[in-house]
């Protein structure tokens, strides 16, 4: 898996993780896969998400790992009774989404593998458009 037990220690304690995941490895695994897909939805147009999530150990981008943990914890906490601890999870989730939107808009440029075309050139995920100045024919 992309996320390990050690990665969660940065954002949540071990006993709190057991409570949030409801001591179910299946619940945790589903939340992690949902978090990866959510991140990929933002990054896929420009970055190679298969290579990003296939990386292991120190090869991984630490910020993406942290935000993946935050998003997974947010999804796990949503299923808890009375939404226990949801305030901090929601805050960290919104921060992760804000960062992903910044990356998607091109305002933040992380060190991630880019998508390459057949020639090995980076694929641009942006469109350039424009039009001529509007003409008014009022005589």
Automatic annotation (TrEMBL):
It comes from the Bacteria. InterPro entries: Phage_Mu_GpJ. This is DUF1320 domain-containing protein.
């Amino acid at each position: 898996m992309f996320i390990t037990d050690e990665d969660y220690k940065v954002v949540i304690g071990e006993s709190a993780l057991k409570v949030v995941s409801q001591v179910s490895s299946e619940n945790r695994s589903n939340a992690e896969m949902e978090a990866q897909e959510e991140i990929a939805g933002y990054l896929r147009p420009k970055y190679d998400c298969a290579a990003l999530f296939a990386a292991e150990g120190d090869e991984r981008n630490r910020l993406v790992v942290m935000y993946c943990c935050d998003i997974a914890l947010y999804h796990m906490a949503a299923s808890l009774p009375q939404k226990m601890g949801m305030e901090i999870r929601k805050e960290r989730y919104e921060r992760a989404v804000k960062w992903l939107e910044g990356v998607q808009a091109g305002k933040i440029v992380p060190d991630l593998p880019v998508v390459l075309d057949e020639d090995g050139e980076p694929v641009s995920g942006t469109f350039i458009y424009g039009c001529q100045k509007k003409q008014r024919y009022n005589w």
